[in-house]
Predict the 3D structure of the following.
Amino acid sequence: MLQASEVEIFREFIRKRGLRYTPERETILREIFKIHDHFDVDELYLRLRNQGYRISKATIYRTLPLLIECGLVQEVYHEDGHMHYEHIYGHEPHAHFRCLSCRRVEEFRDERLEEVAREFQEKHGVQIKMVRYELLGYCAACRKEE
Amino acid sequence: MLQASEVEIFREFIRKRGLRYTPERETILREIFKIHDHFDVDELYLRLRNQGYRISKATIYRTLPLLIECGLVQEVYHEDGHMHYEHIYGHEPHAHFRCLSCRRVEEFRDERLEEVAREFQEKHGVQIKMVRYELLGYCAACRKEE
DNA sequence: TCCTTATTGAAAATTTGTTTCAATGACTTA
DNA sequence: TAAGTCATTGAAACAAATTTTCAATAAGGA
């Protein structure tokens, strides 16, 4: 079976909710899926703007929660006073290591992290929508400097 | 050997840094260790205020990073537009499950989470200061309601 | 095509967190 | 113990992120 594209998923989600599928929403979604990295609202806004789209930040702020709710986007971490996001659809779940000194972020995978989530879900009868694992510390390069 | 109290640890940290150990800082620390739950700046401020302490929010905002740096306090999650903290000294490391609907937070332990961190640390030559594992989803009660 | 009503952009408002600055007081040294 | 230095404090100003308001627009159903 063909995998649904993020656009289809989003449209379906919007419809099911009785909301309206607007070009602004689709443009934001498409742009986010072009960014293969973490992003913040400002970066997204500027990228859209540089391509001639005049989509307001208010609309971006309104759209992000929808994208998060339908599982296409995820809050990754809060740094420098604002939230950072990433798209997640089509990516393996992964964890983040963040260097507290140089701020570099590294992604890695470990199946135990989902295992723990799965077990917690079963044991407690909850429904897990998202797993976030973050390691904070100092990367090898920054350790040497000290 | 007697375990150092959080107050001693904090004083030691402050001294080593060449900073000054003020009553405001100690009062904040003591209050935080009276809260056996997650807290935010506003709650902390009000609790102090209700006890007659006139400590400004600016001072709280200035003190928190110190407490975090010496390992007594931890950022737990960012919700409702602001950060939530908890004291960690004397507690086992633990993970959080947060219900997206009722916002209840549940703590739990799983050693695999530290194991993963330890292995990442060794493999990549980094130094881990903090491990954060968060599960987001719907708790059993909220699932039923739907 | 018409109608209802959700969505949009712009601006105002709100909230969180940081910075400034003069007054205070913690710690060092004599 | 007194004196001097300079970090810390509170208050207020500031900055930035996010939300809300509101009138104009436009999506989707009839």
